[in-house]
Write a structure and sequence with these properties.
single chain, 151 residues, alpha+beta, Arc Repressor Mutant, subunit A, Dna Ligase, domain 1, three-stranded mixed β-sheet, two-stranded antiparallel sheet, 5 strands, 42% helix, globular, binds zinc ion
Length: 151
């Protein structure tokens, strides 16, 4: 879970990353950042756009796409590809993995330190320098299971 109110330090940090990346931290970018930091449900660009609509009625969807792509490049958020669906975004940069429901496409965070610390298979280790590892578990979430049982 994330606190929806960004503190000074988080904003300063974001400003610094933007400076180093050569982009301006505009009001729109800050609001998009605020929105994704407040979300714990891995929202898509479309959903972020929808959620910002009351607050920022003139915000264009293209701006959201571009901003999120930039944030992804700068390492501010992580772009996830969930089963060929449109990209989802994750502001949780701590090491974690995902459980994806194949029915409702809900993405839940999983913390798995044993996996993070396990040995990389020798073959993979020889393919190059590993920079990160991410595991995606797929299945049917409890909510969907309950619904299926009712039918
Ligand atoms: Zn589900
Ligand atoms: Zn996540």
């Amino acid at each position: 879970m994330f606190n929806s109110n960004l503190n000074e330090q988080q904003i300063e940090h974001l400003k610094q990353i933007c400076d180093e990346g050569g982009i301006k931290l505009t009001h729109q970018r800050l609001e998009i950042f605020r929105e994704i930091m407040a979300a714990s449900d891995h929202p898509s660009a479309e959903l972020i756009h929808k959620r910002l609509q009351t607050k920022m009625p003139t915000l264009a969807i293209d701006t959201v796409y571009r901003t999120l792509a930039t944030f992804d490049e700068l390492g501010i958020v992580k772009k996830l590809h969930v089963m060929g669906e449109r990209a989802l975004f994750d502001a949780n940069l701590t090491k974690h993995h995902h459980f994806v429901c194949t029915r409702c496409k809900q993405v839940e965070d999983i913390y798995w330190p044993e996996f993070d610390e396990s040995m990389i298979p020798e073959k993979a280790a020889h393919m190059g320098r590993i920079q990160s590892r991410h595991l995606e578990l797929r299945g049917i979430c409890n909510t969907c299971l309950k619904k299926m049982n009712k039918d």
